[in-house]
């Protein structure tokens, strides 16, 4: 039986209840029996992640419409016959592509939720702008971003956020990107994202974050939050130089902070609300032991040592 | 003609076909290539292609059409990136009433189950495919043989081998 080289389907027959009573009795008294029994009991307790068949079918149907859209434009395929016509097509194409870039901009203290063509979501934080190309979104999901935004990405082709500091491309679903001046931060809330900065490239899994600030060594850390705090109108900072905190205050409240020689390279950890200027200023400056005055037009905050 | 009751282009026929085949195809591709997300993408792509070519593919040929399409696509992806069989977040456990057990037993079980999943992930592709189709999808040897176009005997041999390999890998716990 088990040790018999000729019976190379013995265990298959056993699982299928095809052993004769004698064979079964003999196997049951074999020392190996209990180990095999445990494997089968364990394996039978395994299951796969659920598969939502209706949702999968829906996705196929929506993708299908796109394909059919494309097939209704066969004229373009006939054009390459004439070189001149082709070049006109290219010029028109360029015109269409460049002119269909959609741009969203937020002002001081504003937030904007944008629904991208494939149903992905982008929430822009204050004083940020993002643009993307609606026309070829299906084949090229790229958003160019200045500022900060939180993304919830639908499954599909590669999704990339380009910034002047680096790129974040998505392999999974929910992440936050912040790129201001030379400050670059990517935080992954769900799935996986790939961050490239200069020549560095790193994959972040859920609960991991990456930050690169000029003159500070790049940092990785882990966290447990489910969403960026600014979604709930709170700006939070984790060991960042003070001038970035001031920057954020200025963006949120449309103010100008005069530092008067205060050392803004000090590292700051803390939060402030995005919907209450008095409280925000008080929280930041009182923890730092800094006195301040607000100008009459409410636009300038002067710090005193 | 595309509105024919038995045509693949008939939406009802297509939907029913999808509902009765998509899940097994997805599982099959996962066992073969080791990535469940990728498997779901492959299912999606192959069914989209089927729909676009519905006039050319009669419904009784559709099954082998999607299996061939998805498998070839999977192979060409696998050629470029060697994926190790992944089971975290993919393989779960059926709900059972383990609540009566002592904590020691549950811990032991957890350890054992991890070891088992690990051993399954390390199985050669064909053995893993047969083993999981049989244990998770509860397919008979005949059904598995039809899926991969080999004899029932070959499946029985693979199943036997898979068990022996697992037994060696897990050891005496």
Q: Write down the secondary-structure element order of chain A.
A: HHHEHHHEEEEEEEEEEEEEEHEEHEE
Output the number of helix runs of chain A.
8
Termini of chain A, distance in Å?
Answer: 89 Å
Fraction in beta strands of chain A: 25-35%
Instruction: Report the average pLDDT across residues of chain A.
Output: 79
Q: Percent range for helical residues of chain A?
A: 25-40%
Number of strands of chain A: 19
- Report the radius of gyration of chain A as a whole number of Å: 29 Å
The multimeric state of the shown protein is heterodimer
Task: Name the biggest interface.
Answer: A-B, 32 and 48 residues
* Spatial shape of chain B: elongated
Distance between the termini of chain B: 62 Å
Sheet-strand content of chain B, in percent, reads under 5%
Extended strand count of chain B: 1
| Biggest beta sheet summary of chain B | none
Structural class of chain B comes to mainly alpha
Task: Name the poorly predicted regions of chain B.
Answer: none
Integer average pLDDT of chain B: 86
As a whole number of angstroms, the C-alpha radius of gyration of chain B is 19 Å
Order of helices and strands of chain B: HHHEHHHH
> What's the tally of helices of chain B?
7
